[in-house]
Amino acid sequence: xxxxxxxxxxLVLDPLLRGWLLEDIGxxxxxxxxxxxxxxxxxxxxxxxxxxxxxAGLPVAARVLQILNGKVSFVAVAAEGAxxxxxxxxxxxxxxxxxxxxxxxVALNLAMRLSGIATLTNIYVEKIADxxxxxxxxxxxxxxxxxxxxxxxxxxxxxxxxxxxDDAVMIKDNHIxxxxxxxxxxxxxxxxxxxxxxxxxxxxxxxxxxxxxxxxADIIMLDNMPVDLMAHAVQLIRQQDNRVKIEASGNVTLExxxxxxxxxxxxxxxxxxxxxxxxxxxxxxxxxx
Length: 289
Description:
- With 289 residues, the chain is of the alpha/beta class.
- Helix content is 42%, strand content 19%.
- The protein contains 11 helices and 12 strands.
- The longest helix is centred in the middle third of the chain and has 31 residues.
- The two termini are 35 Å apart.
């Protein structure tokens, strides 16, 4: 598969990676620091897949090890976004054994987590691959891991929704309740947001869809609607303003996603590829030079 995902720059990621290394290493690796002299004993390692799935996060894993020792060579045998089978070698690593051993857990944890997300994301994407609708992720992410978890959904073939609250305006049910209606919410926000931010409105009924259209929402989310009602709402929006993008959301599963896509929506948002994914099991095997 073509991998459309782009990692944030290391300037952004390095503080996170360093923090996770510090969490694991603490005041020092009692085992490795006792057995090995820093940057003296060289060796090689292979990363091996122990389950079927899509590989994601190898560049991040390489960076983790290279933060510990800049001379570490990390060669990705499997391409980022490639499907791998059990027993397949996905990476070969060469360098100082103290760095490989101290960084092993953090590097593997990240790659296993991201690979699991990419794998489940791709299963969802394949369910609607022949339809125009596109899968997008959500802000239901692990605190501290959002940038990487959303990277993994992109590796799996999804599109990133907003990264944070400052990316776009999304007027949800509680915002609407707080100010007394969709019209009031859109009017207040439109007068204050900078160009070119868009306004998305969450709707749960045809009456709310009509109100969002009346106030020129850029994107209308159809939230937790039965498929027949969603299809009616899509038809209504298309007839009145074909410029408006339509997003479906709420309890999307592998069993329901295709029916949702067949209503004609542009996007389907789901937290499941992140919140319901299993880690893809990977292991590291060391050999001495």
